[in-house]
Structure formats: C-alpha cells, structure tokens
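Can you give me the bound-state structure? Components:
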Amino acid sequence: MDMSSHAGTPPASPSYLCGLNESQADAVRTTEGPLLVLAGAGTGKTRVLTTRMAHILASGLAQPWQVLAVTFTNKAAREMRERVAALLDRSVESWWVGTFHATGARMLRGHAELLGLKPAFGILDTDDQLRVIKQLAEARRIDTRKLPPRLFASVIQRWKDRGLTPERVTPAEGADAVDGLALPLYGDYQDRLRALDACDFGDLLLHALALFRDHPEVAERYRQQFHYILVDEYQDTNVAQYLWLRTLAQGHHNVCCVGDDDQSIYSWRGAEIGNILRFERDFPGARIIRLECNYRSTSHILAAASELIAHNRGRLGKTLWTTAAGGDKVAVRATWDGEDEARVVGSEIEALQVQGHPLRQMAVLVRAGFQTREFEERLITIGIPYRVIGGARFYERQEIRDAVAYFRIVVRPDDDLAFERIVNTPKRGLGLASLRSIHQLARGANLPLSAAAARLVASDELKTQARTALARLLADIARWRDMLARTAHPAVARAILDESGYTGMWQADRSPEAAGRLENLKELVVALAEFESLPGFLEHVSLVMDNDEAAGDEKVALMTLHAAKGLEFDTVFLPGWEEGIFPNQRALDEGGTAALEEERRLAYVGLTRARRRAIVSYAASRMVFGTWQNTLPSRFVKELPAANVEQSAPTGLFAARPFRGASDGFARDGFQPDASASSAEPVRLAAEAGGRWPQRRPAPPTIDGRAERTTTRPQPAHPFTVGQRVFHQKFGYGQVRTVDGDRLEIDFEKAGAKTVIHSFVAAA
DNA sequence: TCCCTCCTTGTTTTT
DNA sequence: CAAGGAGGGA
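Here's the bound-state model for the whole set.
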C-alpha cells in the first residue's frame, strides 16, 4: 500500500475510505477505545468491518498478527479474510481472523499441556457428544427414554455457554436441572472427554477461559499481542464469549463490536442479547456509532420492517432510512391452506421468471424446516428448480461421519468414538454382546477400545464368528495405517471405503437416498485431496467444513429465517405468518414476552432480506401433525403499517384487514367479511368463520389455465413411456402411469402418485 | 444378531 | 402424517 504514515496519525482520507458514508467512515477511523457499531440491516456492516481492519493494517497501527478478528461462521471469517486481502492486496496467512471456536482451538492447541490435553486433542461433534452422554446416563441408570440424552446435552451446553464448569454451577441450580441429574452427569461428561483427549465445541471457549484464569501469564501474553480486537455479530455472543473478549481486551480496550440488537435471533442457543445492550456499561468510555442508512431495500419494505420491530421494547433503537423511494408495497396474501399457499407462491415465482427475474434472486423463508416441504412439492410439480439451504450439513450426514470415523480410527488408534461408530458398520456380526466385552476389558485394563479388541481377539472370549470378524477389521485398520505411510491419502481413503465394505453397503441399499450417499462419499474423497494429509484433513473437518451450497446457479432458495440472516434477495416470500407457527407457539409457551420479541426480530430479519419485493402470506387452515387446524393470521401481519402494505385474498376467503388498529382480537380484524359485517361480534365471527372455511376450496384458476397451456406446448423430447420404471431424487422409485407432454404422472413406491416434470426423473 | 412393529414426538442451529 | 427409537420376536 502506498499510503505511508506514522502510527496513530493516518492520512486524512486514504482511498479505501472513498464511498463510505459519514458514519461508516467514522466507524473505520475510530480505532482507539471501545466502540460499538450498531449496524442496521443492509447498512454496510461487513464493509465497515473489513475496511476498518484494512485501515488498521495499512496505516501501520498494527501488524497482522496483532489484530484479532472473530466471527461466528466460517463463511463470515472467509469473507473477511478475502475482502481485507483484496483491499490491501496482500496475503492473509497467519492472521488471527476466524470463528470464536477456531480461535479458541488455536489457543488451546498452543497450551494444551496446561489443560491436561495433548496438542492434537480431538473435537467432538454433536453426534459424538450425544453418544457419550447416552453411555454415561445409562451408566448412572438413568432412563434415557424418559430423559433423552439431548436434554442433558442442551443443559450442559447452556452451562458451557455461560462459562460454567461443573464446579461453578451453583448447587441450587444443579438441583433444579433435570431432577438434579444433569450436574453430576456434566461432571462425568467432562471427565470422559479428558479421558478421550477431546473437547466439544463449548469446551473450546470454556477451556480457554480456564486457561486465562489459571495461567494469567498466558492471558497477559495474548493481551500484549492483540492491539486491536474486532467482533462480528456481537448480538449473538454468549456469556463465555463475552468473558473471553473482556479478558483479551483488558488494558488497551481497543475492542470494536459490530452488531444489531434487532437481529438477535439465537437466544435459544445461549446468545445473550444483554451483551450488546450493556456494551456501554461493560466498556466504560465506549462510543456507539449507528449505521442507519440502508442500501438494500425499497422504502416500503424498510418502513414496514421498521414499524414492525418498533413493537419491541428491549432494544437500543435505530432509525433506518433510505434514499430509494418508491417500489412495491409489501404484499400480504391470504390463502386457503398450505397447498394453496404453495400454489400462490409458485405462480408468483413463475410470473417473475417470465418477466426475466433470475430465480437465484428469489427466496422462500420459513419459520421451521419442515415448512419447506410443501413448497418443494409445488416447485417440483411446476418444474422450477430450487435449492434447500440448511438441512443436514455435509459433514453431518451419516455416510460422511461414518467415513470420517474410519479415517479417524486409522489415524488415531485410540479414538474410541470412531471405533465404536464403525466397528459394526457395515454389519459384520459384531453386536451388543461383543461390544460389551470390548468395553469391559477396555475399562478394566484402562485401554483404548481398539487395543482391548486386539487383546480379545487373541483370547477365547468371543464366539468364533465375532472373533474372525473383529480380527479382520483390526488387520484391515493396521494395513490401512501402514498404507498411509506409503500411498497418497486420497487413494488410501478410497481403499478404506471399498475394502471395509462401506461403499458396498450403500451400493446394496435399494432406498432412494443410497445413490446420493454414494455421491457424497465420492465428493468427500475429492475434498480430501485438497488437504496435504489425512490428519490435516481431519483437523479441519470438525471445525471448518461447511457445505458451500454455492448460490451460483439458477435456483430458488428455500430456507429457514435463521439460515437467511446475512443474505439478501430481490424477492422474498414469507409464508406461514400464522399464530402458532409464526410466532411459534412453543417459543411463546416457553419464553413469554422475551420469546415473542425474538420471534418479532425474526420477522424483521425476514423482511429486511428483501431488496425489491416482500410477499407475506398466511393460510386459513393448515394440516398440523396430521390434523386440519383453522389458523389465525399472525399478529405480525397486523403490526405491518397499512400505508406500506398491499393485501389480497382469493374470492370467497374473507379479505384480511388486519390494519385497522383495533387491539382486541386480531382474529376479527384478520378475517372480517370484507364490506358486509360490522365489527360487532368479534368472537362469534372468528369462531363462525373458523367453522366455515371449507376444506374443499374452489378450483384454483391458475391451475386450470396452466394445465391447458401445458397441453398445447410443443411436446418436448424425452425418453419416458408409460409403464417405465424411473427414479426421482426426492420420491424414489416409481412407474410411469401417464405421459402428458413434459409432465409424467408416476406411481412412486414410497411416495404414492405424483405429477412431475420429466427433467426431474431418470430411467431406473 | 437382526429385523420388524409399535410408540412417541414433533422449532430455530453454528461450531 | 412421518421419522426415529426402543423393544420384542425369530
């Protein structure tokens, strides 16, 4: 960089400040002392963060290793590195830019011995955690049917989120949690993790805190090292992360936190909105800079979102504004039921596509994962490509975990969890009985499972069949380990998967998912090749392997509102705005007002994802867990300002008029007959209406028109004929019943009769 | 040891 | 309704 300067006196306006607005530039330039940047949705938060970092480095205030920047996701960390690197035009090796967890792990690896760990300690994922907890719970004779491991896992996780080791949980709280069983189990769990030489995700921070507390000289060293600290998404930090940051920022207090209290949507996993609300008290002399100029959404969308979020009490408050006047109002659509809603959304997507809007600029954002299903089915039917974002992440899938467990046991012979996972996968006749013997010996002789297994093979403890199978597995593992020393690791990986019979297991599997799983295994081997060694790969896999569902190609995105945070689209569909679904009933029951406010923030996040169009919808009745329920429009619908909203409903369904400000019972407001009825009988009207919405609805015009159009479309060339056996990614195997242009009616073996577009099926 | 059937239980999710 | 877990029977 050509802007030379003395530390502390950067040039008045270096080039990278160009194009920043007043407050953005202020946030970049205010390098000394605690700073909270309250960045509303779409106000250029990432740009400020990256420019600020570039500024600190370019003006010589600090060297790269003296700046600590933490994020929550690998994606955010990667983006930060790339953007700063681009601004500075230099490489980013050895920078301290990473997630809280990755940074914690890095610190722990450097001082593992102080904590009784080895530097190469393992990192457990959620699945491993649950297995361990289940074993320990059973050892304590806890009925894991009535008290499932997940319950204990979440209690323990919450304690870790708050920076509490077992000794620091107060007896009163311990006695309260899960009949007093959780606290002793927490102790067992931590002991077991040590024995396994492993950490779970929470430990990466918890142990770092212990390290700072018990070894002040280490904390001091880091404090000396990091002259500047930057934190992204501060509203999502938990207590442990807060304590960690405070420790590191002690002394210079050059800590810059960027966040938005209105987008705090993770309290249920320990995020403490109080951290951001308390910032000024926690860091005396702190400055707060608000970024309020929104560069994303049109004025109607912004006004609607702002008005909605203004219903929350616990917030710092911001006034977002935009210069982009005009645009469409927020659309609110009443529909008959879930199917109708999916149809309405589908037609709207089609219409936009016809007008030339790219599919990749459209998203359907739902409250809960299962809600994507109806939209998927509709989009498949009308032949619109889509992508479901979120779901099971790549490395969380069963086949990937199994494969990784094989790699782990080959690399680390004493990895008990990995051994347990693969010992009878694929089935090789090693059941509970054999496993119990192995465990017994391992515990008695204090051996890792694989060593215990080896001893057992040399004895007559096991039945011949089990002994042969186990001997073979151990020999295989030894051979693969040997092979690793001489052969390229992707080849070894392939050999492991083939020779263990794991690939064969899926090849023999006739279920619809098997093909996808084999694909994933191939992908895994490809990913593997990008690392220099198998251990190198394993180091990364637990912490930094996200599934890049690259938003490149032409597909509509389907995801939860949570998954949508940080993203933006031209058009955003927000279906399912009904009481009970959104706001979610269970959240309300458990969390009261605080939970309602979080649900409202979620609605705010949803609306502010939209650049040009936001389409909210709700259904009058919906199938919930197998039964039909009449539903009421979400209170959030009513909280949208009438001036920025345009609503519509199909004829026959009462138009929603949730905007008249009467506060007693949005039910009446929501579903009042359009012009005829007075507001005299709210309760009865709602009840009556509830009973009156017919399950059979008028034939939707769009469908008929569409069906006619398709028959007149030129017959596309495709190879499918009646009676043919075909395979569908989602529905599995089936037989073609009728062919109508590009539409095939297929009897699926598992999914029943469906009409699908030919391009979604393959000959079986 | 494995497979099938019955029963329960249904948010949000990164690392 | 649908999936996943547990327990019983072969």
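A couple of observations. Chain A has a mean pLDDT of 84. Residues 145, 148, 370, 623-627 of chain A lie near DNA strand C (CB under 10 Å from a C1').
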